[in-house]
Write a structure and sequence with these properties.
Length: 240
């Protein structure tokens, strides 16, 4: 079955180029010219991935991403934008993006990224579910959720944020170098990846603040230790 992609882009000529390449790669692409149209389309159809422009009329990409996340917490979202400043990209990840690609970009690279996120999404639906208990916290890695055991609701995490916490759980109570974490989770150690990781570390500290016995400590700005003495892991069959 073809994977279905929602493409929301106000530059019609550019969108047609992207749509044509994605369709040649075997994807079914639904195109919308503005954020409001994209939101209406998303509510009526089932999609496997979204590609959203950031600056659009009627509803910008960041707002649209938030609306989409309210309906589907796990669907991959890729932002495309001519806004290349670091703060713009960080805002994109904070808005819930899985990726942020600046224009112009190589279409083959875009297709490769789409394939990576779709493969990861399919694995989430089929592989065994991994859940960590961190003292009084329950971290569902497979669903990108974390909550206090006494709470009725959970907090959704970005995929990279969840990968980061899983890595910390698997290496709890050890001194870890930031460069090593960047290499494992992001595959690179550049300045931008480091800034994104700092954003996620700030979020993780807010999540674990619900339980004072769990701590994330920094050592001289170059190392981390995830302190969790009562930590367990369970596996169940994921729901499709």
């Amino acid at each position: 079955m073809q994977s279905s992609i929602l493409l929301v882009e106000d530059d019609v000529f550019f969108a047609k180029v992207v749509k044509r390449h994605l369709e040649r790669a075997g994807y079914n692409v639904n195109f919308c010219e503005n954020g409001q149209e994209g939101w209406e389309k998303f509510q009526k159809h089932v999609f496997d991935l979204c590609i959203l422009d950031v600056v659009m009329p009627k509803k910008d990409g960041f707002t649209l991403a938030g609306d989409i996340r309210s309906m589907d917490e796990n669907i991959p979202i890729i932002f495309t934008s001519s806004r290349y400043l670091e703060q713009d990209r960080l805002q994109g990840f904070e808005a819930g993006a899985d990726d942020y690609i600046t224009k112009p970009f190589n279409m083959q690279e875009m297709i490769c990224r789409v394939e990576v996120y779709l493969k990861r999404s399919r694995l989430l639906k089929s592989e065994r579910r991994v859940v960590y208990t961190i003292s009084n916290l329950i971290f569902d890695y497979s669903q990108y959720h974390i909550r206090h055991k006494d709470a009725d609701s959970h907090v959704r995490m970005a995929p990279k944020e969840a990968e980061l916490l899983r890595f910390l759980c698997e290496n709890s109570n050890k001194k870890l170098k930031k460069d090593d974490i960047l290499s494992v989770i992001w595959g690179q150690e550049d300045f931008f990846a480091s800034r994104v990781m700092d954003v996620y570390l700030t979020r993780l500290r807010k999540h674990i603040a619900q339980d004072p016995s769990v701590k994330l400590e920094t050592y001289h700005g170059k190392g981390l230790m995830f302190i969790a003495d009562d930590l367990g892991r369970t596996h169940t069959i994921a729901k499709v």
